[in-house]
Amino acid sequence: MELMYRRKVLNKSKTWKNKRENLQISLLCLILCGIFPTLSAAEYPVTVSGLTEPINDVILSFDVNGTIAEIFFKEGDRVEKGARILELEKKFEELEVRRSKLIWESKVEVDSSKVRSNMLKLVYESTLSLYKKTGSVSKEELDKKQLEYDLAEAEYQRLAIAEKREELEYRMAMEKRDKLIMISPIPGTITELMLDAGESCENRQPLAHVVDTSKCLLVCNIEAPLAQNLTKGQNVDLAIPVGFETLSLKGTLIFVAPVVDPASGLVMVKAQFDNKDGAVRPGVAGSMIIPVQSDKTMDGNDS
Asked: 40-55+214-299 in CATH: which number?
């Protein structure tokens, strides 16, 4: 009896073991056959590293040589777009602006010439009327009055053109003077001033560095297969270290390179993110989290 009982228990355990193995095999077949497509097509994140940089970063210089006369801000100061940062010595240019302005605004010659032309026009028209109606004026006298009027009108036109030229010279003098004033093209912070007041500078020599960190970029170079489905305007998750913590941010792709770098086989991608609070200091490394379909891995397309 004891032997028969042991045989029954052994046969029962073998039966459960076979059933469990068959169930495992069936589940594996269902997965491989695509009965659970949500598992095969699930997304998983891929993290790529990159560097942050400000979206607006300008180094300013002059097109001419000169001496710095005055600096209106210090390093670290916030400036608005159009703010005057510094200027060169411009006494001669100021005098030239004043001189050309006086010449342009002097209307005496032009006004008197216009009055004379109008008077001679009336005289000529009166003489022409008499010549036609009464014949009391000779043809020679009529031609003389017409010539006087034509000469006066030509003189007025010459002076009017000269006035326009004087206006252009005045505006050119102002442009030449304004080239000696450095204006910030963006709102931002002055991070560096290369020279002090009284020092000389040369043409194209860097003098001021202005950076706007209110919006920044995370620039990554990623493998071509990962960039295949990325599009401009797509939202991505960013992770950027701030101090001893990692800040999670939302970014928007503003650039996906249309070509692959032949040397590295990588694609440049830029994601823009807001940094109005200045929490991120541009220049630090960061990460971009890119969602990838797991079925690509199964097909061997994902590197």
From this structure: 2.40.30.170
